[in-house]
Amino acid sequence: MELTQEAKEKNWERQRAAAERQRARNAEKLADPEYRQKQFDKARAAQERQRDKTIARLRSAEYQEKRRASVEHKRNAAPQPSRKTRTAVKPRGSKGRTPTAAERRVMDKLGSLPCIACLMHGKNSPLISLHHIDGRTAPGAHSRVLPLCIYHHQQAAPAELRSEYPWLIPVHADGNVGGPAEFEHSNGTQQDLLAEACKRADIERL
């Protein structure tokens, strides 16, 4: 049976109240330094377990045998016809150009802030790295940077943490999580965050 408009509104109010209570509980937990540390420790432990698994696999007799078989196969394979060598264009790399003295001063000030995206949600995450909004080669690019925690920069937070704090979105997509559009939908535009960061660092926008 189709609900009346009044029943629909009451149902919507109950859902909204439940969501508000859940957000309040989540915010209270995230404000607890001990809880945040536990979440970071879980993520670090997971990374270490994955690293140990990878090392164990590389050292296994089965893997070593496969490697030897692959090398032997390539050694015995028929030689391929030679091709004309082309000169490759050397890329600039991810570091881009060296920051100017003025850019370095701005980077130092912005880098002294906690994660600006967390701050917009009333949280303080002091461990950050600088995210370049406009790449690393354009004029002034090194002064247009955001101080972001690892979960807002380039690593997806654990699923449990994301379910409690859906705004923990990395600006660089990690698998199917994050990306600029999703990040800005949850945390505001990168330009707005830069303006707020400059204000808090007491510097003028370039």
Furnish the topology, listing elements before pairings.
Blueprint: H1 5-30, H2 33-59, H3 61-76, H4 101-111, H5 116-119, E1 129-132, E2 145-148, H6 150-153, H7 159-164, H8 180-187, H9 190-201
Antiparallel strand pairs: 1-2
Note down, in words, how this protein is organized.
With 206 residues, this protein is mainly alpha-helical. The protein has two domains: 5-68, no CATH class; 101-201, Herpes Virus-1, CATH 3.30.40. It contains nine helices and two strands; from the N terminus they run αααααββαααα. A two-stranded antiparallel sheet has the order 1-2.
* SSE succession: HHHHHEEHHHH
Instruction: Quickly count the domains.
Output: 2
Structural class category = mainly alpha
- So what's the oligomer here? single chain
Count of helical segments?
Answer: 9
* End-to-end separation: 61 Å
Q: Tally of extended strands?
A: 2
Poorly predicted segments:
85-93
- Structural shape: extended
Please give the CATH class of the largest domain. Answer: Alpha Beta
**Strand order across the biggest sheet?**
1-2
Task: Briefly characterize the structure.
This protein has 206 residues and is mainly alpha-helical. It is built from nine helices and two strands; from the N terminus they run H-H-H-H-H-E-E-H-H-H-H.
